Amino acid sequence: MPRILIVDDHFDTCDTLRRLFKRSGWCADCVTDGVAATDRLHDFHADVVLLDVMMPKVDGFGVLAAIRADPTISRTPVVMYSALSDEKTKGRATAAGAADYVVKGTPFSQIEERVAGQVH
After folding, report:
1. pLDDT for 94-109, tens place per residue?
2. pLDDT tens digits for range 75-99
3. Are 11 and 55 in contact (CB under 8 A)?
4. Following DSSP, what letter does each residue of the chain receive, concatenated?
5. If you ran DSSP here, which 8-state letter would residue 48 be given?
6. pTM (predicted TM-score)
7. CA 114 to chain centre
């Protein structure tokens, strides 16, 4: 069973995605705080992270940088997830080490397909 950690500061979004992934056969967990994301990733051992870009305190790029800098979790694929759909933000995500970038509002089946494509 693949494991996904969802990081989104909106509880309802985080919880909805967690339930959808669980229904699809994933072991899913979520955190609503970018600061807690790396700690949870150490405990949960996710195969992939779905990471919101716009969050208070530490945004998705800060979380991604922390993941990439930590040798124990640095190889975990991260799919950035945001309402921002501009090419500059997508390019920034790729340059920072994101495996993929999904725009919020994309149907769940497509989100799951893109995320599943990162699990090895």
Report:
1. 999 999 999 999 999 9
2. 999 999 999 999 999 999 999 999 9
3. no
4. --EEEEE-SSHHHHHHHHHHHHHTT-EEEEES-HHHHHHHHHHH--SEEEEES--SSS-HHHHHHHHHH-TTTTTS-EEEEES---HHHHHHHHHHT-SEEEETTS-HHHHHHHHHTT--
5. E
6. 0.96
7. 11
Rounded CA separation 94/8 (Å):
19
Q: Which of 95, 43, 98 is nearest to 31 (CA)?
A: 43
Q: Which domains does the chain have, with CATH numbers?
A: 3-109 (3.40.50.2300)
Predicted confidence at residue 35, as pLDDT, reads: 87
The encoded tokens of residue 57 equal 């305190």
Residue 60 has which token pair? 């998705």
